[in-house]
Amino acid sequence: MREECIYTMLRGIKGLSRLFYRFDIRWVHQPPAEPWRKLRLVTFLNHTSLYEPLFVGGFPNKFIRRIAFQGLMPVADKATRRPLMGFFFRMVARNVVTITRKNDHTWDQVLTTVQPDSMVIIMPEGRMMRANGLDKKGRPMTVRGGIADILQSIPEGRMLLTYSAGLHHVQIPGQSPLPRLFKTLRMRLESVDIGEYRDRLMSQHGPDGFKQALIHDLESRRDRYCFGMEQPVVPMVAMASSLVR
User: Fold this and answer.
1) Domain 2-165+180-235 maps to which CATH number in 3.90.1720, 3.40.1130, 1.10.10, 3.30.70?
2) What's the predicted TM-score (pTM) here?
3) This protein's superkingdom (predicted)?
């Protein structure tokens, strides 16, 4: 019952977002033949606004259904405590684990909740970028190391890397909560094999250097694709037909 409610809610958000926004979502490389199969981890880079669920308007229903029925998402306790948005974030995926943003028992709960069919959705920067390009405390937007734990807990499957161009043109954190309508939401996608990706970093940097190598790699990809969307990319042929379903 919970899963059906979540799926209905996400489909509703998709409908509204497609009514009020345009989408420019493409692959940075040629995707697999079936890009929505075997996804075990979805990594959202360049977290800039609480309105990022609007991006579901650019994804096929099979992906949205997977979020509702197998999604596992860690969400900061600060977000879940918000009066209205808190309810939404508690219902954004099948399993929502409230975390404190510290390496404590709440993060351990995330790792123990991962099941063989789970699709983990994570924002590895752990906080939102403000209008000045920094986080709320004036620090650079770095990737935190928790994603290394996730990658080591998932033996195989694929990781979908999503590179957001940002939503400050829709809503800036700390400013008016009302979103601006009729904007274009831009995102780039990349699919990597989890086992191959993890093994490559392990072989190059060893177990002790794995976490820092992963952080550096993800930040490099983010800086290349999130902030360089004027560069040529592979048209998203696999998604084009699914946007109208």
Assistant:
1) 3.40.1130
2) 0.91
3) Bacteria
